[in-house]
Amino acid sequence: MDVELSSKKFVFLGDVMLGRGVNETFRDMPPRHVWGNTFDIIRSADFSLINLECALTYHEKEWEKTPKVFFYKADPGPAMVALNEANISCTCLANNHTLDFQEDGLVDTIRYLDDAGICRVGAGMNIEEAGAPVFRDVGEVTVGLVAFTNNEPAFAATEDSPGVNYVPLYLGLGALGPIRDAIKRAKRLSDLVIVSVHWSPNMAFYPSLDFRLAAHAMVDAGADVIHGHSAHNFQGVELYRGKPIMYSTGDFIDDYAIDPIYRNDWSFIFILNLDGNSIESIDLIPVHLSYTETNLATGREFIEIAERMENLSEEFGTRVVLSKNKLTIPIMEERAAGTI
Length: 340
Prior knowledge:
The chain has about 350 residues and is of the alpha/beta class.
């Protein structure tokens, strides 16, 4: 008998940094406060993926092997409460802050996430684990996840030491060999393949041609969704072969200074609406990041955030429809019309 596949909502967020000032607020406020009034939307998702931009550790010794300016870590107790209460399903650990407190900090992070049942991808106890796809059942849909970063090469995992899945994209598409292999492996064992990638220089409105070619190559290899982050501000969404490429999902929680041009305090909750195994549409809900807390954008700010995403996505030929409280990219509708 055929199984009827139900609709699902998959939430994607950008950088979630729970260290420094955010960690300080945990001492005075309930951990869930960091999500502001976005909490119910995120918690109600069938699946959620974030880039966790900090270590979860009490380890105090900072990374010393190479020069570094910023070091982020959160106390595991309240940080895990924040993640658990928001029902976060999975974290990307392939980024340039996971080892800010050395390998011990990464090992702690892995342990806390594993103990909580929150899946993690893109880092591990060795390169085999860091580069391997991770699988998550979401109802009747099996999700395969692959993650990597082109930042902080000194953080790279090796055959016998923990670290991140580092891929030097400056070497060109040839460097994507292991990623293609991981995507193909994930494709054989899952219904939907997501690639989460920490790339791009800070503060950039558009992905470089190299990154666009890399994203296209990953879709050609079998990826269904590209979840990009690292730029700190959001970038436009491209549909390539009908597959969404979110080049940069921006920041989501932090204590960062605000750039008045790139507006790293503007972002979105990215919601993929699935009909069975197919992505029907993407809803983008504008948010505003204040110091250590994120809330839904309102009024003129909502309009400005929405207009920026419309304009940036239009550069890729992506149609974005504005409604009262969100933007929508109607993928199924575009496919039926033969425009993608």
